[in-house]
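Problem 3 from the worked examples.
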Amino acid sequence: MSYKLYYAQGSAAMGVRVLLEEIGAPYELIQTTIDMDKPRPPEQLALNPNGWVPVLIWDDSAMYECAAITVFLCDRHPEANLAPGVNEAERGVYLQTLVYFSNTVQNAFQLNYYPERFADTEAEEPSAQRRGIRRLRETWKVIDDQIGDKEWILGDRFSAADIYLFMLTTWLSTPHGHPTTDEFPNVKRIADKVMQRPSVQLVYAK
């Protein structure tokens, strides 16, 4: 099985690329952009009219949304052991965490990075940015508390949820007023361990 991935540095496509490396499936990167002032390839817009990445292509099919792609790839490649099966006890926490990352933590980043999407006027954009920073602290605290003293998000089992967590921590920006992972020691502990994986070293090499 081979894949194509619409890809841009600094985007959620990097997390999907790590998954593909972990799975060991062949893939091709199709370079695109997350720069709001640059056009997207029309082929990308045909697959995702929002213009965002990642977009994953396989056979004659395609899909977008990072959390959905994560679930799909892990279920399609169970031999990689990156997710609990549908009847395993950890499946609920795994799905819950991925959706929380996608719908809540990423939304907080969007408030701060793209305030024009949430404000009626330019004058109101700083308020949206400040709310995004507060929301980042709130949402990361929820995840930090959920992890507790567990080795990984799912306990003693490494999973795609840990990769997703790491990816999101790379978006934290001190110049934007974001908290650092030092405020969330359980998150930091997992992110630091994920960073040591060869797949992550490859994708996130400076």
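Problem 4, a separate protein:
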Amino acid sequence: MKKESLIFGIHPVLEAVRSGKPIDKLYIQKGSTNDKIDAILKLIDTDAVSINYVPVEKLDRLIRSNHQGIVASISPITFKSLEVVVEGLLESKEDPLFLILDQVSDVRNFGAILRTAECTGVDAVIIQKKGGAPVSGDTVKASAGAIFNLPICKVDHIKDAIFYLQGSGIKTIAATEKTDNSIYDIDLTGGLAIIMGSEGKGISKSVLSIVDQSASLPLLGKINSLNVSVASGVFLYEVIRQRMH
């Protein structure tokens, strides 16, 4: 994480929160009993900020100065409310397209996925507060600036977002090699959310158990998985192909 995206110390962080700076993550020293940190937490928008209680050693690695037990990571974008985005899209668009990332953790993959999502007309990207890559200057660079043209919604749990989308009439499709259903045999028209899993673990079992359908890509070589950024591109362009016919 680049130092220029970090603010540390009680008063600087408090002023950042008061001035409406888009905070991505908040790192707080475990066991902190500082009343001023408690005051900061009361002002934080917990729908948009990931709050992490960490050992002092973690803070010392992030900041070599006196951090006073608190470090904030500033996001280059402002996150959107999932409910507001979905409601707006359902009113204004016939077949909205969402992309859900289940803890994609590599910032270069994350940025590349955002770039492809923007190019393929994805209406919003949904990420989980914890476990995913940070939204940082590196993300902006890897996305070639596409991140500024794409609403990004942060949620506590991917499952809740899926339930909400399903309740709104959006079909949910999980990209996974753990199925015999080929992407080329599945209807990808209509309101749709594509779910992509993390680089190491793929989509979690609990998420796979609630999606409407699962789909895989044909793998004809000796390696049994694709890079998540490449797989996202293939899925999204298949959506485009089906919608153009």
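Solution to problem 4. Residues 82-244 form a domain with the Alpha/beta knot fold (CATH 3.40.1280.10). Strands lie at 6-8, 23-29, 50-54, 70-74, 97-102, 124-128, 152-155, 171-175, 192-197, 213-215.
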